[in-house]
Amino acid sequence: xxxxxxxxxxxxxxxxxxxxxxxxxxxxxxxxxxxxxxxxxxxxxxxxxxxxxxxxxxxxxxxxxxxxxxxxxxxxxxxxxxxxxxxxxxxxxxxxxxxxxxxxxxxxxxxxxxxxxxxxxxxxxxxxxxxxxxxxxxxxxxxxxxx
Length: 147
Description:
By secondary structure, this protein is α/β, with parallel strands linked by helices.
């Protein structure tokens, strides 16, 4: 093939989304609505990951179920993974060390960068479902120092 011949068409990279088992309407713009994305996505619900467990991952080990679900998506050819629940920041280090594709477990991973971009003394706002849960290990594991 010469430099001037057309390259084979490759299917677009696919994002794999690991979903907590929830039951509510996902509007466009929500990570769980495929119409949110201008490219193909694949979903995998982690059956053991019910909302009541997500804020207490120290008590409910869901790492292995998330790894199993991630592996299914990786085997289906996704180019990267993300999740539908910010509490999964708790597993960021473990999942990224394990995964063969990039994985972003939580938008909290952006916090250190955003903090560096803000004027001195300003702090990014974290909007969460339960502020009493989103502290300690959940924050420290993504580089947010405890206050």
